[in-house]
Amino acid sequence: MENVRVRIAPSPTGDPHIGTAYMALFNIIFARRHNGTFILRIEDTDQKRSLPEYEENIFKALNWLGLHWEEGPDVGGPYGPYRQSERYDIYKEHAMLLLKRGKAYKCFATAEELEEMREVSKAMGKVSGYDRRYRNLSEEEIKAFEAEGRPYVIRLKVPLTGNCEFEDKVKGKIVTPWADVDDQVLLKSDGFPTYHLANVVDDHLMKITHVIRGDEWISSTPKHLYLYEAFGWQPPEFLHMPLLLGLDGKKLSKRRNHTSIEYYRASGYLPEAICNFLTLMGYSMPNEKEFYSREEIAKDFDVNRIGKSGAIFDEKKLSWLNQQYIINAIEPKDLWKRIKDWGFQDELMEKLAFLCQTRMRTFGDFMELCSFFFVNDLPLSTELLCQKGLLPEQAAAALQCLIWSLDEKVDWSSASFEASAKEICELFGLNFKKQMIPLLFGTIMGKLQGPPLFDCFEILGKPRARARILRAMECLGGVSNKKYQKLEKAWHARDLKSFFDQNASS
Ligand code: GLU
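Above: inputs. Below: predicted complex with glutamic acid.
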């Protein structure tokens, strides 16, 4: 194969996800196999949710895993810019081109109209929601709407009949009736592109030859293929990789699983073990080998050996593999350096020491005070977490709300934690000192006393603190699926007292 060019296109909207590493890895392996180029493109068209910090964290997380790119926003390259927010004019131009060619149209539907259409199609059990009512307006009608100043979006005019057929290099032939495909919005009323338009335009302009991405995008592929056709471009090959699933067989989600790359780094996993583990998720080596280097898999990489269905992400297996790496892949003389680089840097130790200063009788107390920081599994129990009559169910719900509250904040500081904890206390009618503080001490440190709680939260960092909250919730019996939805509603309405009244009576 000549001039193979592949890419990952993450959106910087949260902590870098283990799935991003998984995709990067397979793209790199494919690129190495064919002497190709691996590109990192940042898809930050969701202006509300995209943040520069998250982008920076993607770079850091992938670099830590040794997953390096040849072209990208930070290193540049011949087809830049590689950040979509710097390419808005390009998308607009392309949307206009489709309008001119009659492959797209202006849609003036109001929010109320769209809501109504959604209701109707739901009632009829239809897959697509939009009823195409603005697809065939006359020039005059369009002009009249525009003269009224009515906002519009630009939609793709997908075929009304027949099937979209394509050969996925992993899944085989995929057939989708066009009737099941919506007239996708390409350009929003504010002039910003949707994922679909920006993604296709960029893949074409960046000369991507193979799109290797997660299974969840397979249903978008017909729209993408139609866009290629409408532009008159040759589409790339598509390889949809099996999804990462939790032990419950459902797609990995941050609600139930550890999805943050930073969580794994901070918990002391080795980057080489994580990469090896992630390749096992989507691929089987010919000799059923499980312990191998990236070079080994890249050498004879064969797309026919990629799995077709979801792969179970089993953390126990990852721990086992990690141990194999600690035993077999680290020279004894390098071991302490690796441990030190992981968790004992001066900057961190200085912060921890400072927090312990007024709590040590001798330096002999230091390790005990901050051991919580270096261990993965804290000793938890309902008795520890629920003090002064706090009910396990209430505690679990309060912790879930703490997660939501923290997710709403970009600022990850001790002050913002404290504010969240206080707000939740008030909303739940809990006693801050007697119930909330012990609950959080238990959750974060596995004990009822220690260095200043909220500072410890801050130093621990979001992914690890989040993981500890999830673990404490699990210990408390969790929040059932049914209650989760009710709780979420109550949280958004900030009406939690009645949530418990209702529950008590139900
Ligand atoms: N921006 C998409 C994501 O966040 C990219 C999907 C694709 O690879 O086309 O995963």
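The chain has three domains: 5-76+244-326, 87-241, 373-504.
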